[in-house]
Design a protein that fits this description.
alpha/beta; 6-stranded parallel beta sheet; two-stranded antiparallel sheet; Isochorismatase-like_dom; hydrolase activity
Length: 193
């Protein structure tokens, strides 16, 4: 079993209204938000650090273009005043956001990553975290992605895209666990809030 330090941080990526836009297409993990919510409740209960990341796109066509409702956090993932909030303009939450410095200042070495999109912001952030030496966990059932076409036009189902992204991360960058394993690693007093 993986045990988590008392200052292991839960990093919630891009849980904003825009991610529910129909134009993004079919997705996998329909219960991902429930798993994220359970993890968030457990982190708050155990008083471990929670970090929210908001994407502010530089692309006017993005669901995360500043000034529109898509940039707002989903109600269930609205940060508390005591929780850290970082904004990013590229998929990687550790790139030019100040997050890495913030983590180092607090001697946080363990990151537990949830959110969207598995093969974009989650994967990019987890790769950087692993490269920077953080003990990184990606929670497989607390992330999701969408169907995607490759460069030859083949349509890949979201579940396949998700599985491949997690497999890539497991090679060198992060451990892949499910939410039950993570909750168990918080200790007996913190299971499911």
């Amino acid at each position: 079993m993986t045990a988590f330090a008392s200052n292991a941080a839960l990093l919630i990526i891009d849980m904003q209204n825009g991610i529910n836009h129909p134009r993004l297409g079919p997705r996998n993990n329909p219960e991902a938000e429930l798993r994220m919510g359970e993890l968030l409740a457990a982190w708050r209960h155990s008083e471990r650090p929670v970090i929210h990341v908001r994407h502010m796109s530089r692309d006017p066509q993005s669901v995360f273009w500043p000034g529109q409702s898509g940039c707002q956090f989903q109600h269930a993932f609205t940060p508390l005043a005591s929780e850290a909030l970082f904004e990013k303009h590229v998929p990687d939450a550790l790139c030019d956001s100040g997050l890495a410095h913030w983590l180092h200042q607090r001697a946080i070495r363990q990151l537990v990553i949830v959110g969207v999109i598995t093969n974009n912001s989650v994967e990019s952030t987890a790769r950087s975290a692993g490269n920077l030496g953080f003990d990184t966990v990606v929670v497989a059932d607390a992330c999701y992605t969408f169907d995607q076409r490759d460069l030859q036009g083949r349509l890949w189902p979201a579940q396949d895209v998700h599985a491949l992204a997690l497999s890539n991360l497991a090679m060198d960058y992060a451990r892949i666990l499910d939410s039950a394993e993570v909750l168990a690693g918080l200790g007996p007093n913190n299971l499911r809030g």
